[in-house]
Amino acid sequence: MAGFEVAGRKFRTEADYKAALRDQALIEEIKANVDMEQPGEVITLYSEMQMGKYRFETAVGNDFDDEIYELTQKYKSQGYDKNSRITGKRRRKKSHKNKEASVRGRAGKKAGREDRKEISLDDYDTDMRKEILAELKKRDMRRRVMVALCTIVAAACFGYFGVYYYFSDRTQMDYASLAELKGNAVLSGTNLPGMTIHHTQEEETDLTVLEEYQTLYNKNKSLIGWLKIEGTSIDYPVMQTVNNEYYLDHNYNQEYDKNGSLFLDKDCDIVHRNTNLIIYGHHMKSGKMFGNLNQYSSEEYGRQHSVIQFDTIYEKGTYEVMYVFRSRIYNEDEVVFKYYQFLDAASEKEFDSNMQEMAALSLYDTGVTASFGDELLTLSTCDSSEQDGRFVVVAKRIE
Prior knowledge:
Layout: E1 5-6, E2 9-10, H1 14-33, H2 39-50, H3 59-77, H4 96-115, H5 126-181, E3 194-198, E4 204-208, H6 214-219, E5 223-228, E6 235-239, E7 262-264, E8 276-280, H7 299-304, E9 307-312, E10 318-328, H8 348-361, E11 376-383, E12 389-397
Parallel strand pairs: 6-7, 8-11
Antiparallel strand pairs: 1-2, 3-4, 5-6, 5-9, 7-8, 9-10, 10-12, 11-12
Helix pairs in contact: 1-3, 2-3
C-alpha cells in the first residue's frame, strides 16, 4: 500500500495512483515556471487555474489548488494584483573588488571618449555610406515590426483577461440566476405535465416535475433537485448522472468548472426512494459548494442551522440534522462502517446498526433519532483532518 502514496496522499487503486503521479508532475512543471514569491505570477497562475488551463485529477491537485488559492488571497490582502512584482529579491551585492573594477572601467571609458574623434557619414566613401544607411533602415524596420508584434500580443493578453473576467463574473452569477429561475416558466415554454420515467424494462412510472423546477429541468435533464440551508451559502441545484465523476468538475451549464456541482450518488433513486440519499460536493476554500459544511462541527452552529430543505424535482422535503461526524474513504478490504455505502436498510436490525455506528461517530448529540422506515439525507464533503478524510452531516426527513 505504501507504493500507492503520492505527496502524503494514499490511493486505493493503481489507476488513482498513476493519476496522482500525473498531477504531481504537472505541479512540478508549474512550480518550475512560476516564482511563488512574486505576487503577480501567483495571482496570474490562480486565474489560469480558474479558467481550466491546468486540470487535476486527484486530491494531490486539489491540495495544490488550495495552496495557490490561499497564497493568492494573502497577496491580494496585501494590496498586490496580477501586475505586481517585488523587485530586488535576488539582487547580488557587488564586492569591493568589483566596485573598483567598475570605477576603473568608467574612468577608462571616459578617457576613451575624450580621445575619440567624432565620426560622421561624410567620412566614408559613397559605397560605405549606402551600406550604413541600408543597415540603419533594416534596424528601423525590425524595431517597427517588434513594436507591432508587442502591440498585438498586449491586445491579445488584454482580450484574454477580458474574456476570463467576463466568464468568471458570469460563473459567479450563475447560481444566483438559477435560484431566480425557480418557479419561472419563461424558458420552459409550456408546463411539463406527466413525463414518463423509465426505471426498468418492465416498469414505467408517470411523474410530474414540480412547476417551479420545470424551467431548470428543461435546461438540463440531469437536474434531480435543489438543496438549501437557510442562513448559509448552500443554495444550489443538485445533479445526478450515471457516474460520480462528471459533476466533480462541471457546473449546471455543463461547462468545465473546478468548483463542480452538488450531485446525488449515482446509485440513489428519488422515485423508488432509498433509505438514505447521499449528496456530494467539494469543500472549496472560497466557501462555494460545501465549503462551509464543516461549520457544523460547532454544536451551536448545528442548532442554529438544524433544518435542511432538499426538494427533488418531483416533491418537496424538509430534514432535521441528526448526526455530524468525520470519517474517511476506507480500503475495500477494511471491515469498518462505511457511511458512503449505506443507501438502503433491508431490515430494522440493519437500520438500527447503521444508526448506532453514526451516533458513535457524531461530534455531539442533537437529540434527534430515527426509526426504521424514516427517510434520511446525507451531505458529504472532503475533510483535511486526515488522509482521504470526509466531513458528514446526516439528517432525517420531517416533512
